[in-house]
Amino acid sequence: MPPKSKSDGPTEVDRDRFIDFDRDRAQALATRTVRFAGGVALFRDDLPFSYDRNALLVDLDADAEAAALASAADRLQGGAGLAHRKVVVHGSLGTRLAEEFRALGWQVVELVVRLHDGRMLDVFEPAEEVGPTQAETFWVEGIRREHGADSELIRQLVAARHARREATPVRYFAARAPDGRIVSACELFSDGRTAQVETVETLEEYRGLGLARAIVSTAVSAAQAAAHEHVYIVADAAGWPGGWYQRLGFEPVGSIFEFVRPLA
After folding, report:
1. What is the pLDDT of residues 120-147, one digit of tens each?
2. CA atoms of 258 and 150, how far apart (whole Å)
3. Cys-Cys crosslink for 30: which of 42, 218, 219, 242, Cβ 3.0 to 4.6 Å?
4. Is 13 helix (H, G, I), strand (E, B) or coil?
């Protein structure tokens, strides 16, 4: 089946397809799970610094309160010795919980799920597919710039990137500086029918040069060439990325809410 055309318009089916894809992948990456009232706690005990791999995933049909979820996070994540708390909610429940979590002093991040409308994208700057070993050098540089030079933190966050291949096949696309260094990169996850462009990153001094468009366009073209039915991207609801992705043909279909409380 060809990718959806823009005239079809995003539907609840499109939203639900991504929710299933995202939740299945998150749970497949866990090495340990614990059920609680209203959801499941996902753990990667070997990667405690990875917030994404250690989170509470709230059930789609849950009627939860923020205080109860925060308590479950303290009990489960605190009991595992984690230095953070994280709760992930798909769908409309997250909208209601956002104010409750803010009142508790938690960080609230709304991520917008966007479905590509199927248009063919022009690539104006060179981009290429690379292997994970090549991409790793770029990851290390980005993590060091964002989080500092803590070697154990860098090791775990890089390991978490590599671990994504345990759940879903991943391809990597990159653009290089004139000296050959990778300075912009993204990932493309796929289950054979559904694809997701993820982790679009460009080093600060190379932004505004069209490199992000190049890697995203190349990844989308690769997904289209492989006849994926749906191609998604997830971006922060705040700031400029939403409008930029809209211009590339990614239409909003729903939201994911992440509630986070880092500990001292």
Report:
1. 988 778 999 999 999 999 999 999 999 9
2. 25
3. 42
4. helix
How far is the C-alpha of 60 from the C-alpha of 217, rounded, in Å? 32
CATH number for the 128-251 domain, one of 3.20.20.140, 3.40.630.30, 1.10.10.60, 3.90.226.10? 3.40.630.30
Closest CA to 77 of 36, 106, 21: 36
In the three-class reduction of DSSP (H, G, I as helix; E, B as strand; rest coil), residue 242 is classed as helix
CA distance 88 to 238: 17
What does the DSSP 8-state code read for residue 75? H
Band the pLDDT of 6: cuts 50, 70, 90.
very low
Indicate if the alpha-carbon torsion angle 52, 195, 63, 66 is positive or negative. Answer: positive
- Residue at token pair 């497949």: 28
